[in-house]
Amino acid sequence: MTEFSILGDTTEWRKDVEQRLRARYTAAGLGAAAAERKVESAHSGIGDWTVAEIMDAGTLVGHVAVVVADDNGTLAGRIGDLRVDALHAGRGHEGAARDWAERWCAERGAARLNVLLTEPAGELFDGYSARGQLRMRHVGSPPEPVGGVTARPMTQAEYPEWLTAQKAAYTGDIVRAGALSPEEAVLKSDRDFAKLIPEGLATPDNTFLVLETEGERIGTGWLKHGHLPGVTYGYSLYIQEQHRGKGYGRAAMAAGEQATLAAGDSALMFTVWGGNEVAMNLYTNTGYHVVEEHRSLALPRATT
């Protein structure tokens, strides 16, 4: 029978979990400095986590860590770690630990439970909705332009319309993924854009592109260079709806990779929201692998 005991001194557990996470990010292709930044981000507030030992007949078989905190105005739980030693894996301890985490968070008022996956979890979180994936690809040499598509800097006159459209698209992605309500998503969108590009087109280390073919505007791009050491983050590579289905998605990726190399970075990273199968397929087909995946579950778990 699986039992749980709250751990008092988490020092050794913290060393172990951070070492495991660092190894996973490195295996995913991040350099040492970038992997360290991701570990710091993933474990922000780790001192507030509640860590429980997973026990089987008095034997320690693993750990599960949880926390409940405000998330854009809603109480949300998080599973920060769930690990069962290989010797004891596959005996039901993983499912028991997940269920314990769900109950623990629900009892403390969490309306949903989030989990960050940095490696395949089998069927353990199949009942959780995929909210988004972080995808990345190393860029070794400048790609050739695709389909006659060219990229130029966005002008100040084009910026306001672009910003309005980007905020709306971002809000829609959040709602479609089921992460927040429409009202919460609008507030998050406003906050995030104000933080990310406070100086608009003049915000340092950002590239804003207009994509064209034969002089006709077909899309836009927004990239943040040095998001992680050596890594550019693509906030948006957008093809207008009337121009979709013509292979321009690949062209936009190529333009983003060219901008990445021009800025001195060697990898390009994107978030693709859950439910956007078209984007997921594009990233897969262009060699962008999954670095991490966010999933969540509404609490309390529905019973059948």
Write the topology of this structure.
Blueprint: E1 2-6, H1 11-27, H2 32-42, E2 50-56, E3 59-71, E4 74-84, H3 93-107, E5 112-117, E6 129-138, E7 149-153, H4 159-176, H5 182-196, E8 206-213, E9 216-228, E10 231-239, H6 248-262, E11 267-273, H7 277-285, E12 289-298
Parallel strand pairs: 4-5, 10-11
Antiparallel strand pairs: 1-2, 2-3, 3-4, 5-12, 6-11, 6-12, 7-8, 8-9, 9-10
What is the CATH domain class of the largest domain?
A: Alpha Beta
Determine the CATH superfamily of the largest domain: Gcn5-related N-acetyltransferase (GNAT)
Mean model confidence by pLDDT: 92
Gyration radius over CA:
21 Å
The CATH architecture name of the largest domain reads: 3-Layer(aba) Sandwich
Helix content: 25-40%
Indicate the structural class. Answer: alpha+beta
Give the number of helices. 7
Query: Largest sheet, if any?
Result: 12 strands, mixed
Instruction: Quote the beta fraction.
Output: 25-35%
Strand order of the largest sheet: 1-2-3-4-5-12-6-11-10-9-8-7
- What is the CATH topology descriptor of the largest domain? Aminopeptidase
**Which H/E pattern describes the elements?**
EHHEEEHEEEHHEEEHEHE
Could you tell me how far the N terminus lies from the C terminus, measured between alpha carbons in angstroms?
Answer: 24 Å
* Overall tally of domains: 2
Q: Per the principal axes of the C-alpha atoms, what is the gross shape? A: elongated
| Total beta-strand segments | 12
Low-pLDDT windows of residues: none
